[in-house]
Amino acid sequence: MSIQLFGVNVSRGVAIGRAVLIASSRIDVDHYYIAAEQADAEVKRLLTACDSVSGELEVLQRDLPSDAPHELGALLDVHRMLLHDEALIGVAAGWIRERHYNAEWALAAQLEVLVRQFDDMEDDYLRERKSDLEQVVERVLSWMRRSRSPADAFRGVTGEDPLVLIASDISPADLLHFKRSIFQGFVTEVGGRTSHTAIVARSMNIPAVVGAREASRLARQDDWVIIDGEAGVVIVNPSPIVLDEYRFRQRQADVERERLDRLRHTPAVTLDGQRIELLANIELPQDAAGALAAGAMGVGLFRSEFLFLNRAGSLPDEDEQFEAYRSAVLAMQGLPVTIRTVDIGADKALDRPGSHDQRHEHGLNPALGLRAIRWSLAEPSMFRQQIRAILRAAAHGKVRMLIPMIAQRNEIRLTWEAIRRAQAQLDEAGKSYGPVEVGAMIEVPAAAVSAEMLLSAFDFASIGTNDLIQYTLAIDRADEAVSHLYDPWHPAVLWLIENTIKCAIKLNKPVSVCGEMAGDPQFTEILLGMGLRSFSMHPAQMAAVKQRILRADAQRLRQPRADVLQRP
């Protein structure tokens, strides 16, 4: 039976594929297809893992002290029985042989099926036994992860059917794996249109729907699913007619993308001759190649925090950061690269025990807590380490450094002191470094109101509209309960953006917009009317924005801009 779910439309496009369900509480596993001839070896790997874990439990049971509770021994017996249960291991082996899933994926998939059956049980005792099942599976997955070598992975094999991911939530850092994954799109049960996850999905052109309550309960492993990212609709088990209709829409979208791709290397010049700078936002050094291919004139925002995330407590040292920044600089072939200092906090917390972000991530409102430049100044040695790496990379090309969330005079003073101290340390160590322009990221209303003061202390400005809107309207953009109040068209928001641009023009300082508004074609004309001449966005958004620029007359756009600013 076909089921329709409704959520928040966060990323245009259509994705069609079989459902892969992942519960947020489980161990993360790799999802990839194996070659058909590798199925027997993959099943053997699964059974070997089960036998090994069973052996570990047997040793634990044998070594139990004489005064240990009888229930503990009985529990270990249950866990050992589950390791050879046909409903778990036998069916998982079937996923491997029939669907060509890798062993970890097959086991996790069958766990989701069984957990749902446990949840539907009326007997409390039986329902609570699912924790035993989860513990056993996590032991097996951990064993396979420990014993796996790179040669074991049979990646690059394409399966017959595309896949879509359904989860309670997905972190922005995890979304980066979509660039190399087999998933066509995703659905989450929580989140709003302006959460970081939604923004990253939109910038990467990943069809997605968030806030689709009950999605993981109503969809089952391997169900066919349609994700309509424009309408915010998820269709589970669609009829053949509906499936054909959406496949036709996919083909139409591909044709439109190919048409826009022809604009990649066309200069972005308005009808009245205004040359517009289109820059790229990137997360990792390897993204620079995509920026060049899209026709970017440089990198307007390198989100350096993605080098710090998902590292199990280990953070990049100065040399590792230097190599990453240098790699991006060299890849851009002489074009400028703007590196934002680490923006840790809110929904991008480190997992380093004892760090400031660990101690504060459970505050009442992390978005208003120790994040961005506040976090960097609270960790001075780490901040100087990053500055040194950026300065060293500047010896290999044009580099600019962007300071996020700066608004206080004292933050300005401490930032420049940290930069001067980092330069002195490099001089003492005899390491070469290059000149770096330093800019202020305008994303706090106080910074936008006092933009002239900030710009007098820095070389350039970049307007981060995502947070600027959030803080101006007092809305948590990750909270779907209030996400409908997030309004980029609010007159107060537009006034703050225009005031910043005016101040930059007055002081003859470069200014760009690197927030989501820059990559949304519906805002291109009003930003041009405000005097903006530099836009930074994900490479995938560049062609659509360029098309609007080529059709625009910047001088004639000033009156419509005034009308919008006066909107009640």
Task: Please provide a written account of the structure.
By secondary structure, this protein is α/β, with parallel strands linked by helices. It has three domains: 3-23 and 158-259, Phosphohistidine domain (Glucose Oxidase, domain 1, 3-Layer(bba) Sandwich); 36-152, Enzyme I, Chain A, domain 2 (Orthogonal Bundle); 262-565, Phosphoenolpyruvate-binding domains (TIM Barrel). It is built from 23 helices and 16 strands. It has helices at residues 39-62, 70-82, 86-99, 103-119, 124-128, 130-147, 172-175, 196-203, 215-218, 240-261, 288-293, 318-331, 356-360, 373-378, 380-393, 409-429, 445-449, 451-457, 465-473, 491-506, 524-529, 542-550, 558-565, and strands at 3-6, 8-11, 14-22, 163-167, 183-188, 208-210, 224-228, 233-236, 277-282, 299-303, 337-340, 399-403, 436-442, 460-463, 511-513, 534-537. Strands 1-8-7-3-4-5-6-2 form an eight-stranded mixed beta sheet. β12, α16 (409-429) and β13 form a beta-alpha-beta unit. The longest helix is centred in the N-terminal third of the chain and has 24 residues, at 39-62. The chain is globular, with a radius of gyration of 26 Å. Residues 149-158 and 353-362 have low confidence and may be disordered.
Q: How is the main sheet built?
A: 8 strands, mixed
- How much helix is in the residues? 40-55%
What CATH first level of the largest domain would be assigned? Alpha Beta
Into which percentage range does the β-strand content fall? 5-15%
**Termini gap:** 47 Å
The pLDDT mean sits at 86
Structural domain tally: 3
The best one-word shape is globular
Kindly report the CATH topology of the largest domain.
TIM Barrel
- The CATH superfamily of the largest domain bears the name Phosphoenolpyruvate-binding domains
Which value, in Å, is the CA radius of gyration? 26 Å
Number of DSSP helical runs: 23
